[in-house]
Amino acid sequence: MNIEQMLNTLTPEIVEKLKTAVEIGKWPNGVALTKEQRQTCMQAVLVWEHKHLPETERTGYIDRGTKEEDEPCDSHDPKDDEFKPIRFT
Which of 9, 18, 50, 51 is the most buried (most CB within 10 A)? Predict the structure, then answer.
């Protein structure tokens, strides 16, 4: 069985189990994953998600919003950048 055939047999349920195994470092039966198994499982999850899920639902997705690079947030007040000493009363 090659990698493509293996990836085609994955179901959403299997992918969730692989993700959990990667997260906790153990198989469902409690046996610890080896470093190689963890890497292989993570690669399989990422490739499967890339093929089957929209970008916003994939592992590691970061919503960057609609702001342009270097555009400040609405809540940013430049006065907050100034040094303000702490005073104890």
Answer: 18
Q: How far apart are CA 76 and CA 68, in angstroms?
A: 15
SS3 32: strand
User: 3-state DSSP call for residue 15?
Assistant: helix
Model confidence at 5, in pLDDT bands (50, 70, 90)?
confident
The torsion region of residue 9 among left (phi > 0), alpha (psi -120 to 50) and beta comes to alpha
The Cα-based distances of 47 to 3, 7, 32, 40, 61 in angstroms read 11, 8, 23, 11, 14
Query: In this structure, what DSSP letter does residue 9 have?
Result: T
Give SS3 for 26: strand
Question: What is the mean predicted confidence (pLDDT) over 26-49?
Answer: 95
What is the DSSP code string of 69-82?
Answer: TTPPPTT--GGGGS
